[in-house]
Each structure stands twice: as structure tokens, then as C-alpha cells.
């Protein structure tokens, strides 16, 4: 029961790790690269690699954390949630607070936007989608949006909506949510099931009733957005192809079978698929309000850029002089052309 323990009890492992904050801090690495204008040409905005020092055997990383990261790399998860206690709200990324010195000027907002007058400067490119996912859980909960009495322990941080951005509420670096978003395709949130972290057995049935419909509604959101296959002209799947959604500066990649899923709010999107050695393909995909992802497949044709790069490398990466038809070549030009061929 709650009278026998405080909020922090059970928060750490036997070895002293807080598993939720034990993941690599990829958000700070991304922001540092943005400051140096390296994104996305030299530093990706998605599937950011795990730093080498973090993978070393003597790194201060829990064995459970390593197992979860390996699990994420093995399975192309689309939507995730970690369940916690001691509060009653849904928290979404970013959980890491961006340093003021690295914060760019906030983009102007539409007058009818749903955000407050002081938008967070560390919003993810999928901020609107994360809010929708959080609201889908909180609105179906029996008591999560009844915040007129305040929060569980302090004032209500959710503006009576039952949702809050992690960095605004409880800033932390290396969270599972931020790692999942920046290293995989998965959109992950933290769901705090109730104020009582250690409810008595007699209270468990009511806690289940409070959260049951929310859990089902949240899982249904995996079918909102677009999905499809990326193949070549022979129908072979293309793994690790990049899916770019216009207006959202966060790309995803196809799984080993060439399939992808992208959770999106209703609307019309310009979607591009590209892969190394292939010509990119662009099409317009519409997402509707009804549950059910829109099928949006791509067929990519092979590109000759790979062969062009090989020829350029043979030429020392110098521009190859164009031969003008009708003009005779000099002996030197003829010899150079023969060497290249």
C-alpha cells in the first residue's frame, strides 16, 4: 500500500540504475549537430546510431537496458508505451530539455493553433502526432482529465487535459521515449496509470476499469496514418529505404521486408521514398479520420548514379569533359578517354 512506501521506492534496480533514464542521450547529439548545420546531410534526423562509448563493456549501462535496445533493433516497433505509477497523466517527448544557448528561434504559430502562448522550444517534429496519441489515452481514461482538484502531488501541469510534454514537466536526459524516437521508427510515450503507486489489492479492479478502455484506444492508434511496401521494378523488397513526409522533419526507414508504417494525423501529405542505388519516388497520400492506415506503396527504379560515381572516382573525382559531337578530339583527349574506358 501507498502508506508503506514513497514515490521513489522501486524506481531503481538492485545495481542502482534508473532504467528509464539509462538510454543514450541522442537528443543532445542531434541538437549539437543542428547547431553546426550538419543535419541531415552529415548527421541524420532519424535512426541516430548509438555512441561507441555507450556500447563499451565497461560502460555504466544496465543489462536490462542493453536487452531492450537489442529488442528494439530486432523488431520494427511502430507505437509504444511504458507504464509507470505515482502520477495520473500521459507524458510525451522530448523528455530532454534543450539548452537555451542551443535553442533556435521558435517558428511562428498559426493563430488557431492548440498550443499555449509559450510553446516549448524542444518540441519534436511529430509534436502534433504525439499530442494526439497522448490525448487518445487520457480522454478515454475514466478520471485522468478530471484535474480540477490539481495534480496528484502538486499543481496540475496538464492544463486539465491529462497530457504534458516531458521536458516541460520533468526534464531528464537519456529517457527511453527520446531514444525510441531518435533511434527507431517507434513513437513512444510514458503513461502514469494513477496517483497511488502501490494500490491495495482491493483497489486493483477499479484501477483496471480506469485504464482498460484507454489501453484499447491507444493500441488502435497504430492503424492511423500510412503504410505500404517499397520494392524495386522486379517486386523485390527494399530494406532500409527512407520514407520522407513533407513538413515533418523526421524520417523513418523500411523494415527488412520493405514494409513501413508511419503514424500521421488526418490530412494530405507529400511522401517521398528513396534508397541507395535507386531513383526516388514521390506521391500524395491522404490520411482520413476513420481508423485504418492508408496504403501507400512505392516502386523504385534503379539509378545509374552508382556507376557514375565509380567512373568519377577513376577520374580522381574531377569533372569529365563532355565530348561535343562533330568536333574532332585532340590526341591527348583521345588517350585520356581510352584510359577512362
From TrEMBL:
One of its GO terms (molecular function) is DNA-binding transcription repressor activity, RNA polymerase II-specific. Residues 1-222 form the Peptidase M14 domain. InterPro entries: CarboxyPept-like_regulatory, Peptidase_M14, Peptidase_M14_domain. One of its GO terms (biological process) is protein processing. It holds the Pfam family CarboxypepD_reg. Keywords: Glycoprotein. It comes from the Eukaryota. GO terms for cellular component: extracellular space. Residues 100-122 are annotated as: Disordered. Belongs to the peptidase M14 family. This is AEBP1 protein.
Amino acid at each position: 500500500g501507498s502508506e508503506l512506501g514513497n514515490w521513489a521506492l522501486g524506481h531503481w534496480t538492485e545495481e542502482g540504475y534508473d532504467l528509464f533514464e539509462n538510454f543514450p542521450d541522442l537528443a543532445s547529439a542531434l541538437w549539437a549537430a543542428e547547431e553546426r548545420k550538419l543535419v541531415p546531410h552529415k548527421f541524420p534526423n532519424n535512426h541516430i546510431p548509438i555512441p561507441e562509448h555507450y556500447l563499451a563493456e565497461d560502460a555504466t549501462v544496465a543489462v536490462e537496458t542493453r536487452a531492450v535496445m537489442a529488442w528494439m533493433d530486432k523488431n520494427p516497433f511502430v507505437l509504444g508505451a511504458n507504464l509507470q505509477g505515482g502520477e495520473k497523466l500521459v507524458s510525451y517527448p522530448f523528455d530532454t530539455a534543450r539548452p537555451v544557448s542551443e535553442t533556435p528561434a521558435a517558428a511562428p504559430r498559426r493563430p488557431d493553433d492548440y498550443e499555449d502562448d509559450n510553446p516549448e522550444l524542444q518540441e519534436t517534429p511529430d509534436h502534433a502526432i504525439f499530442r494526439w496519441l497522448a490525448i487518445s489515452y487520457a480522454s478515454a481514461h475514466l478520471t485522468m482529465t478530471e484535474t480540477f482538484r490539481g495534480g496528484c502531488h502538486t499543481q496540475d501541469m496538464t492544463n486539465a487535459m491529462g497530457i504534458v510534454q516531458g521536458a516541460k514537466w520533468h526534464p531528464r536526459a537519456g529517457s527511453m521515449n527520446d531514444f525510441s524516437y531518435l533511434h527507431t521508427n517507434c513513437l513512444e510515450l510514458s503513461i502514469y496509470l494513477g496517483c497511488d503507486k502501490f494500490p491495495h489489492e482491493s483497489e486493483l479492479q477499479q484501477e483496471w476499469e480506469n485504464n482498460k478502455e484507454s489501453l484499447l484506444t491507444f493500441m488502435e492508434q497504430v492503424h492511423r496514418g500510412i503504410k505500404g511496401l517499397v520494392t524495386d521494378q522486379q517486386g523485390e523488397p527494399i530494406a532500409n529505404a527512407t520514407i520522407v513526409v513533407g513538413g515533418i522533419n523526421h524520417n523513418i526507414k523500411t523494415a527488412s521486408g520493405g514494409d513501413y508504417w508511419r503514424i500521421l494525423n488526418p490530412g494530405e501529405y507529400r511522401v517521398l521514398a528513396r534508397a541507395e542505388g535507386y531513383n526516388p519516388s514521390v506521391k500524395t497520400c491522404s490520411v482520413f479520420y476513420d481508423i485504418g492506415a492508408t496504403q501507400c506503396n512505392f516502386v523504385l527504379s534503379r539509378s545509374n548514379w552508382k556507376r557514375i560515381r565509380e567512373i568519377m572516382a577513376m577520374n580522381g573525382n574531377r569533372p569529365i569533359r563532355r565530348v561535343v559531337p562533330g568536333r574532332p578530339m585532340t590526341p591527348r583527349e583521345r588517350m585520356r578517354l581510352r584510359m577512362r574506358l
